[in-house]
Every structure is written in C-alpha cells, then in structure tokens.
C-alpha cells in the first residue's frame, strides 16, 4: 500500500502502480497521446508529465511510467508541467498543421501555436505515438511495420517501404492510430482491402456470407492457434 | 550471397545481440547492404525484417546504397569544426556536386562527414579511402580532389 | 605468451621474473602508434626502425617497443629513448637510421628533433622536462608509454594484475565496494555519479545474472581519451572490470566499443585472449574460485548509444532508443537484469585504488572530485593532446601552462567542456578549478573530458548552431521535446546566423530550452539546450549583434560578412585570384586586388592562402 497526494488529494494506491492509472481511477484527468489500455506505456509523447516530489527530490516525470511510492506528492498542473505540455502541443501542431485533433486538444488546454515554428509542409499526420508499431509487435505479433531512421527523419513504414509479406492485413494499426495517418481502404463490395500498399483478399463468413477478415489474417491465426482455417471462417456476429 | 551471410552469422554463433556487428561485416563484404543480404540476415538470425530495417536505417554506419569507388570522409568533430571544417565541407560538396552523405551518379565518389575521428591534433582531417590527410584546408582539399580526377571551377588557371 | 597462472603467489613470481628479465639500463626505443600518430604515418617509421636495427644487427642489444598514445599528439611522430627518456618529436618517417647511429650508438642528441619550449626558446632533451608533461600528473595515462598493448608481459612486468590478485585473495567483495565508495571515485564518462554506490546497488539488487558493462562509446566529438586508454593499455581496463565484477557478483561483462575505433577493438580482443590464456579471465581466476568473462560488441554510429539504456538496447541488437530511467539500470538494465555500467576511464582507475588504497586516491583532487582526470585538449590550442591532471587544476593552467596557449597570436575566447551536453565557458572563469560540481555551477559539465578551445575567430552563435545541429542528427526520435524541439531551436539559430533573426528569438530559445530540459526522455534531450543556454548566458551581445545589427563580430557567418582586400597590405601576388573558385578575387600582378561582392561565395579560400594578411573579413 502507498499513501500519496495528487493535486492536494490524499489517495491510497498499491505501491508500484503508475501515477497515470491511479489518477484515472480517481477521476483526475491527465492528457495523453501515446497511451492505450491494451499496450504497455512508452513515455514518448511526454504530455502526461507531472511534477513528483519524494523527500527533497522533485522531478518532472511521465505519469504513465512512474511508479507511486509512500509519501509522494504529485502536482499534475504545476507551471513546469504546463510548460512542457504547451511545448509538446506547439511542436506537434507545427509538425502536423492539418490535424484538427491537435488543434482541439490545444484549444482545450489554452495553448496557442508558436508563430516562430514554421509549420511543416509535407502533410504528415503521424505524431510518432508508436501505438501502431507496439500493437503490431506485441498484440498482433507479426512486426510487419516498424520504425526507420531517427530524429526528425524517423517514420513508421514497412521494410524498404515496400509491400510487406509479414503483414496480415488485420488493420489493427489503422484502428489504433489516433490521427488517421494509417489509411486502410476497402472496396465497395468488401472483397478486398488495401493497407500499407498491399491488397488483401477478404474471406467470406460461412454463415452470413459477408466479407469479414483477410485470408492472410485467418491463415496467421490458424498457424498460431492450430485451429484449421475453415473453422475460423465465421465472423464475430455469427459466432 | 546467402552463403556468405550465413557464414558471417556463424562467426557470431547466431547470437541476435550481435546484429550490428553482423551487419557491419556484411556491409564490408558487399560494399553496402543489398536488400537480399538483409533478408538473408533476417531469415538466418530469426529477427523480423522490420527490426533489421530499423537497425540499418537507425545507425549511421550503414548504407543501403553502394558507396563510391573513392570514399571521402571529412571529420566534423568539434575540434575540426572550430578549425574551419565547415568551409572545407562546402568546398568538397561544391566540387563533387553532391551533398554530404551522397555518392556521385557515376559511383566514383562518396562523401560523408563523421562525428569525430579522434585524431584532433591533425584537424581538420580528410580521409581518402582510409588514408588520413591532416591539417586540411580549402586549398589542400581542392588539390586532393584534383589529383583524384575531380576538377575545381577555376582549374584552367591553376598551376 | 604467459600460460595459466594458478594463484596470486604464482602471479607475484611471474611479475618478478618478468621485471627482473628486463634490464632497466638496456637502451629501448619506444615509438607511439596510437591512432593519432598512425595518422602521421608512424607505421612506416616502425618498419624503418626494424629494418635499420636488423641491418646493424642490433636487435639483441637495443630493445624496441611500439606503444599506445603518449598524449602529446601535436608533436607526433614521437620517439622516446630509454633509459635517459630522451624525447624526440616531429620525427621524420625516415629518421630511424640517424636516431640509431647518433643517439643510440654514439650518445649524441639530434637537436632538430628536440622540443623547443616557446616560453624560453630552449631545447628540451628529457621527456619529464617537457612543459606539456611536466605539469601533468600522469597516473593512469602515463602507463601507456611503458607497455606495448599487444604484449601482456609488459603490463605484468610493471605490476599489472597485482591489484586483482590482492582483491581476489584477501579482500571481501563488500570491502572492495566500501573502498571504492571511500575513494569517492566518480564516473569519468560524464555523469560523475559515484561508482561505489552504483556497484553497491547492483550487488544488492534482486535478479541473476548480474552484468557489468564498459562504455567505450565515447561519442563526444573531440574526445578520444577512452580510445587511447583502450588502445594503449587494454589490460588496465580489463583488470578494473574483473575487480568490479568480483565486488558486484557478476560473471559476465561486456565492452561496448564505438564502431569508429577499429584499433581499440583489435587490441581489446588480443588482451582478452591473452588474459584468458593466463588465467586472469574466465574460469576460476587465479585459482580463487571466481569466474568472469567478457564479450566485446560494437556500436553502429549513434551518439545516443553513450546513454546507458540506449547502449543496452544496442547491445541487445536493437536500435539505440533509450528508456525512461525511472527504474535504475542497477535493478533492471541489460536484458532486464541488474547491470553496472561504467566508463573506460572509471574502470581504469579501479586497480590503482585497490593497490594503493582509498585514502591515497582521496588525497588527490578536490573535496567533491577525487583523483585525476584525463582530458582531450583540442581546437585552437598549441599543444593539442591528451592531458591528465588532478581534479581541481584550473582551466588557465590547462590551457596556458600545459596547452601552450592559443596559436597564431590569437586571443582566447571560450572553452567548451562536456561535449554537446555541456557548455561554453568564457575568459572570466579561466581560474575555475576543474571539478564536477564547479563546472555544473557555471552552466557546463565535466562530461567525458573533451576541452575544445576557441579563439576570437570563432562565432559563439555558430558554435551553438553546430552543437544543436549535431543533436538533431543524433536524436533517436522517440520523444517529442527532443525530436521536434531541438530542430526548432536549430532552425531559429540558423535564421540568426543567416541574418534572419528576430527580436525575441533569444527569449524564445530560452523558453523552449526549459521545456526540452524538463520534458525530454533521456539525458541527450535534457542536456541538449546547454550549449545554447551557456552561449546566451556569456555571449548575449554576440547574439544581439547577429539579430539587431545583422553582423557577425567573429567574421564567421557567411551571410553576414564580406571579404575585401586591404589595399595597404596587398602586394598583388595573385595567389587569391588563383584559388578563388568563382573568379570574384581578381587583379593584375603587383597591383592591389579586388573582390567582386556579387561573385564572392565567402568560401574562405583567399584568406587561407594570403600570406600577407591582406584579406579583411567583416
């Protein structure tokens, strides 16, 4: 057990839990951009920073990864914290000037764009929250997409920016992408979908006759689970 | 190519932790990292190709494109910078007609800058195919390129 | 080749035997073949010596040794002749025969190869009298000139591995850790964290196996101390690591060497093989029951891999992205196991502390920073090289007494310490004692020990832009403040150097800096603003000149300067016209030349080639 204070409220938590999770459990809102309940936190957007004091030491830390401890005092809106959040949003808005979500988030937090940051002209929507890559690696398990290059050149792509043979067309990355950067197009009939430059044939549900999942995805699940593909050819609604 | 890659991986006992040195050895073998070689590394080392690609593009040591027959490296460490490295870099770029990190279209010359060669007493330094040329300056760099066959703009009047 | 030594007593007798077998009076020629001197071509000099010695059939009478870096890199190639320790510098590659004939055989000194003290004009014969060396305390680095890095017996002959023997046979691991804590050995890689506490935390951590790592990434441009230690005396570093492993309870170590150090990689591999053969590494070291071995892995070219969690990622075969350090590496580091990482120079200090005691070590240096530090003194300095001094030595002593001051009669302007994570220190702090805490107080840091000297022809805004640009290229890209913030700072700095700076830019840089400092995920990001902040702090007027007056006082920023010819000094020699790539500089023989501003690209070729100092840059 750990007794700590968050924004002057006394809170009880289990030692070792992350500040962000405890805050959420107690109705304290901390903004995030790279956090998702189904994947491990990565601490890359830095929006969830808080000021944490333990004894004489005060640190600015990302609440998604920082474990609570007995006697900790947390301030989720100190001046230093707000400065970091402001900077992060200003930088992201300059990187993705077309993003309405970022503009909304900034407006909510009272953050205005910094005129001296010349907005990028390459129409990138990706904010490098890393959710797609983490999902593909840890949840789906194929690691079809990954990062390439580093620093400002860093981007998410398939190896060599070519069609990936490991991709199963599941669309989990497109689903979890918060900005709509990852595009998945499905034909009108639904018989195929295209993502990351590769087109996948969709399988028809044995029961209702609708297209529901890529054949490659079912083949992958079959390989991993040992269940024959034909037994998997039933969509969720019909199960 | 696949055999050579397998051989290199064997030298490191197939240990995934040695991905970086393995790639360095593969690059030394082929003068760059061809896509097929990288796929072979992925297969025989059991590392997803997306991670191999990430590592290759993350580290500066690796090149996905063939290097020139003549490789020029200019040190841009702080000591060389304060001794005028920037102007030498511009000069070499201008004469070769390529940006730092690129190779000339005819694959004759590659020019790159590195963080530090650690021979600061000789700074600025231009390395030509592994040979160190210290106390470099603009005039000397022009001369070296001329000797290698790349002429400067006002070459007709020189010497 | 030394075969397996099975006990400390046996080690002692091997050491004694080797020492006795080396007659200190026998003439010995030592040639430095560190990477710096190799760049001067010393390989040929060494071949020359071998040839000349064999021609005269002297191989038995005169010993010959190649060694690692001696430190006085400005004066290479260097040859030291023992036992007198005659110091020859700037030796010609074909001088071997003359040196043998005159000095070795006839005892004559070759004047032209002697170092001339610029202060007195006098020639210096002996190494210890050379001002550059005299003022140093070459505790750790001094051993380089006594050993051939490929010959372990050289190291054994001077008592090498004695500290290890002492530790393994007579001191408990916890006691060793206490000794390191008492000595207050602080990390020499940049952080300055007390090594003893790190060792203690790792020892006490839960989890097996425990790893120890040697950080030989040395990413700071201009710093090459670690390379020279690893190249020149790899056994010293290995010995330190084995002692540390024993104290911590680790049986597996890693040495992570920067890709750009092939000679260091080669020499450490040789040393490891030799140490294994001698029973000083591997199973049951010196018969003590303690086993420990080392693997070597290489970097791929990324400054960020000097940061411990990024280094571990790289060691694991992944991209070097750091992790938030809320859980210490000592609890979960490499492969998520308790890991103790220390810098090369830190490991190198360990045998000395065990051999001579913590009290002795703590008697050197200042209250907060004990021992000596090896610095690389580079840039606008006369005596470029590696310098070892006790902590607390002032910058003035280092730059002027050891470094010999600024070349070409120019004026000292600033000294940059701590690499891209550090700051620029101006003239008013030249009397600052160099110590971890003093440097941090004035806005810089010790860092790995690179000291870059700048003169009045260096522009501090340009320097800030250079470091910031370096960090843009080296950022891993994982977190927003660093990936996006540093490039925005670089863009603003670029504007300032191009005459496009605006009112408020300096204040904005300061504001962004705070956000990056507080918000970044790792030490690369949160120290990235240091070069900018320190140059603003001490050279604000230079920024103001660039922004308000569109002027570069140092004459560096190309968009803000013009090149012209001083009519009074120009002799009409036509050299500038010849080297000018655009034809901007022109004139007739013996007539004053002119520079056509429309064509001038400010490339600097004319100023560089003019022998009459008649090119004005404003």
Account of the protein in words:
- The complex is a heterotrimer of chains A (about 240), B (about 160) and C (about 625).
- With about 240 residues, chain A is of the alpha+beta class.
- Chain A is about 25% helix and about 20% strand.
- Chain A has helices at about 20-25, 80-95, 100-110, 130-140, 170-175, 215-225, 230; strands at about 1-5, 10-15, 50-55, 55-60, 75, 145-150, 155, 185, 190-195, 200-205, 210-215.
- Chain B is an alpha+beta fold.
- Chain B has 2 domains: about 1-60, no CATH class; about 70-150, 3-Layer(aba) Sandwich (Glutaredoxin), CATH 3.40.30.
- In chain B, about 45% of the residues lie in helices and about 10% in strands.
- Chain B has a 4-stranded mixed β-sheet with strand order 2-1-3-4, with helices on one face.
- In chain B, a hairpin with a 2-residue loop joins strand 3 and strand 4 (about 130-135).
- Mean pLDDT of chain B is about 90; it is low at about 155-159.
- Chain C has about 625 residues and is α/β, with parallel strands linked by helices.
- Chain C folds into 5 domains: about 20-140, Glutaredoxin (3-Layer(aba) Sandwich), CATH 3.40.30.10; about 160-360, NADH-ubiquinone oxidoreductase 51kDa subunit (Rossmann fold), CATH 3.40.50; about 370-455, Roll (Ubiquitin-like (UB roll)); about 460-550, NADH-ubiquinone oxidoreductase 51kDa subunit, iron-sulphur binding domain (de novo design (two linked rop proteins), Up-down Bundle); about 560-615, Alpha-Beta Plaits (2-Layer Sandwich), CATH 3.30.70.20.
- Helices cover about 40% and strands about 15% of the residues of chain C.
- The chains are: A alpha+beta (about 240), B alpha+beta (about 160), C alpha/beta (about 625).
- Chains in contact: A-B, A-C, B-C.
- Chains B and C meet through helix 2, helix 4, helix 5, helix 6 and helix 7 of B and helix 2, strand 11, strand 15, helix 18 and helix 23 of C.
How are the SSEs ordered, and which strands pair?
The complex is a heterotrimer of chains A (239), B (159) and C (618).
Chain A: E1 2-6, E2 9-13, H1 19-25, E3 49-54, E4 57-62, E5 73-75, H2 79-95, H3 100-108, H4 131-140, E6 146-148, E7 155-157, H5 172-176, E8 184-186, E9 192-195, E10 198-204, E11 211-214, H6 215-225, H7 229-232
Parallel strand pairs in A: 1-5
Antiparallel strand pairs in A: 1-2, 3-4, 3-5, 6-7, 8-9, 9-10, 10-11
Chain B: H1 2-11, H2 19-30, H3 35-45, H4 49-58, E1 70-75, H5 78-82, H6 85-96, E2 109-114, E3 126-128, E4 131-133, H7 138-147
Parallel strand pairs in B: 1-2
Antiparallel strand pairs in B: 1-3, 3-4
Chain C: H1 8-20, E1 28-32, H2 35-39, H3 42-55, E2 63-67, E3 79-82, E4 86-88, H4 96-106, E5 115-116, E6 123-124, H5 131-134, H6 152-157, H7 162-170, H8 173-183, H9 195-204, E7 211-216, H10 225-232, H11 234-248, E8 252-257, H12 262-277, E9 293-298, H13 308-315, E10 339-343, H14 344-356, H15 358-362, E11 372-379, E12 385-390, H16 395-402, E13 412-417, E14 423-426, H17 436-441, E15 450-455, H18 460-474, H19 480-497, H20 505-519, H21 523-527, H22 530-548, E16 563-565, H23 575-579, E17 585-586, E18 594-595, H24 605-609, E19 615-617
Parallel strand pairs in C: 1-2, 7-8, 7-10, 8-9, 11-15
Antiparallel strand pairs in C: 1-3, 3-4, 5-6, 11-12, 13-14, 13-15, 16-19, 17-18
């Amino acid at each position: 057990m750990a007794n700590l204070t968050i924004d002057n409220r006394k809170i009880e938590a289990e030692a070792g839990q992350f500040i962000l999770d405890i805050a959420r459990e107690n109705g304290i809102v901390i903004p995030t951009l790279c956090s998702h309940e189904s994947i491990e936190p990565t601490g890359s957007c830095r929006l969830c920073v808080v000021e944490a004091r333990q004894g004489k030491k005060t640190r600015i830390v990302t609440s998604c990864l920082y474990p609570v401890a007995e006697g900790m005092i947390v301030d989720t809106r100190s001046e230093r914290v707000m400065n970091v959040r402001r900077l992060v949003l200003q930088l992201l808005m300059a990187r993705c000037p077309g993003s309405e979500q970022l503009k909304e988030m900034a407006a909510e937090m009272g953050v205005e764009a910094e005129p001296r940051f010349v907005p990028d002209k390459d129409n990138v929507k990706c904010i490098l929250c890393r959710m797609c890559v983490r999902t593909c690696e840890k949840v789906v398990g194929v690691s079809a997409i990954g990062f390439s290059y580093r620093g400002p050149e860093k981007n998410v792509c398939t190896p060599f920016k070519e069609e990936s043979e490991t991709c199963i067309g599941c669309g989990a990355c497109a689903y979890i992408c918060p900005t709509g950067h990852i595009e998945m197009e499905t034909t009108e009939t639904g018989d195929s979908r295209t993502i990351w430059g590769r087109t996948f044939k969709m399988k028809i549900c044995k029961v209702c006759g609708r297209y529901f999942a890529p054949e490659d995805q079912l083949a992958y699940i079959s390989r991993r689970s040992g269940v024959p593909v034909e037994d998997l050819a039933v969509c969720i609604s019909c199960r | 190519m696949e055999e050579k890659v397998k051989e290199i991986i064997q030298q490191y006992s197939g240990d995934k932790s040695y991905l970086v040195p393995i790639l360095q050895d593969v690059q030394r073998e082929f003068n760059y990292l061809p896509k097929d070689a990288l796929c072979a590394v992925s297969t025989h080392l059991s590392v997803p190709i997306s991670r191999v690609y990430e590592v290759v593009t993350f580290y500066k040591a690796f090149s996905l494109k063939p290097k020139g027959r003549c490789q020029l490296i200019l040190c841009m460490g702080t000591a060389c910078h304060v001794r005028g490295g920037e102007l030498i870099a511009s000069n070499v770029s201008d004469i070769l007609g390529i940006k730092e990190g690129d190779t000339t279209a005819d694959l004759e010359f590659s020019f790159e800058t590195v963080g530090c060669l650690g021979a600061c007493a000789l700074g600025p330094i231009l390395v030509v195919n592994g040979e160190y040329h210290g106390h470099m300056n603009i005039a000397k760099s022009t001369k070296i390129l001329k000797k290698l066959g790349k002429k400067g703009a006002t070459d007709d009047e020189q010497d | 080749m030394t075969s397996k030594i099975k006990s400390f007593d046996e080690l002692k007798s091997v050491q004694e035997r080797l020492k006795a077998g080396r007659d200190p009076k026998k003439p010995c020629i030592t040639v430095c073949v560190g990477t710096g001197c190799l760049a001067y071509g010393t390989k040929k000099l060494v071949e020359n010596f071998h040839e000349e010695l064999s021609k005269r059939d002297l191989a038995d009478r005169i010993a010959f040794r190649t060694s690692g870096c001696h430190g006085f890199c400005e004066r290479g190639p260097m040859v030291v002749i023992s036992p007198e320790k005659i110091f020859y510098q700037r030796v010609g590659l074909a001088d071997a025969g003359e040196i043998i004939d005159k000095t070795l055989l006839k005892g004559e000194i070759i004047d032209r190869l002697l170092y001339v003290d610029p202060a007195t004009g006098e020639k210096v014969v002996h190494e210890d009298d050379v001002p550059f060396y005299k003022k140093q305390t070459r505790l750790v680095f001094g051993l380089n000139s006594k050993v051939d890095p490929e010959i372990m017996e050289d190291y054994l002959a001077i008592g090498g591995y004695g500290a290890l023997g002492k530790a393994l046979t007579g001191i408990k691991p916890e006691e060793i850790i206490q000794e390191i804590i008492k000595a207050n050995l602080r990390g020499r890689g940049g952080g300055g964290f007390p090594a003893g506490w790190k060792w203690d935390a790792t020892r006490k951590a839960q989890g097996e196996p425990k790893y120890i790592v040697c950080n030989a990434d040395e990413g700071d441009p201009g710093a090459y101390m670690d390379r020279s230690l690893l190249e020149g005396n790899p056994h010293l570093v290995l010995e330190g690591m084995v002692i540390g492993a024993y104290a911590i309870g680790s049986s597996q170590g890693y040495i992570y060497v920067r890709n750009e150090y092939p000679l260091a990689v080669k020499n450490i591999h040789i040393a490891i093989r030799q140490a294994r053969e001698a029973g000083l590494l591997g199973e049951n070291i010196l018969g003590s029951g303690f086993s420990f071995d080392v693997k070597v892995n290489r970097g791929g070219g990324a400054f960020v891999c000097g940061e411990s969690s990024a280094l571990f990622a790289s060691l694991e075969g992944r991209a070097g992205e750091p992790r938030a350090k809320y859980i210490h590496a000592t609890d979960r580091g490499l492969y998520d196991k308790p890991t103790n990482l220390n810098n090369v120079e830190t490991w190198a200090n360990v045998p000395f502390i065990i051999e001579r005691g913590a009290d002795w070590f703590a008697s050197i240096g200042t209250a907060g920073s004990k021992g000596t530090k090896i610095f690389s003194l580079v840039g606008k300095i006369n005596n470029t090289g590696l310098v070892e001094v006790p902590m607390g030595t002032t910058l003035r002593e280092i730059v002027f007494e050891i470094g010999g001051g600024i070349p070409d009669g120019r004026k000292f302007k600033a000294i940059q310490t701590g690499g891209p994570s550090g700051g620029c220190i101006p003239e008013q702090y030249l009397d600052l004692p160099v110590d971890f805490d003093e440097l941090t107080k004035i806005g810089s840091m010790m860092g790995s020990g690179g000291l870059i000297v700048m003169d009045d022809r260096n522009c501090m805004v340009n320097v800030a832009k250079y470091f910031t640009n370096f960090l843009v290229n080296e950022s891993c890209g994982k977190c927003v403040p660093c990936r996006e913030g540093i490039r925005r700072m670089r863009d603003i700095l670029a504007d300032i150097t191009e005459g496009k700076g605006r009112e408020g830019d300096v204040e904005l840089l300061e504001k962004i800096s705070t956000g990056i400092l507080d918000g970044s995920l790792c030490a690369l990001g949160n120290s990235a603003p240091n070069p900018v902040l320190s140059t603003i702090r001490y050279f604000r007027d230079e920024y103001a000149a660039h922004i308000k007056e569109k002027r570069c006082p140092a004459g560096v920023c190309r968009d803000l300067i013009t090149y012209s010819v001083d009519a009074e000094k120009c002799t009409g020699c036509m050299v500038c016209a010849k080297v000018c790539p655009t034809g901007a500089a022109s004139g007739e023989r013996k007539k004053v030349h002119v520079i056509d501003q429309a064509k001038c690209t400010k490339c600097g070729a004319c100023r560089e080639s003019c022998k009459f100092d008649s090119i004005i840059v404003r």
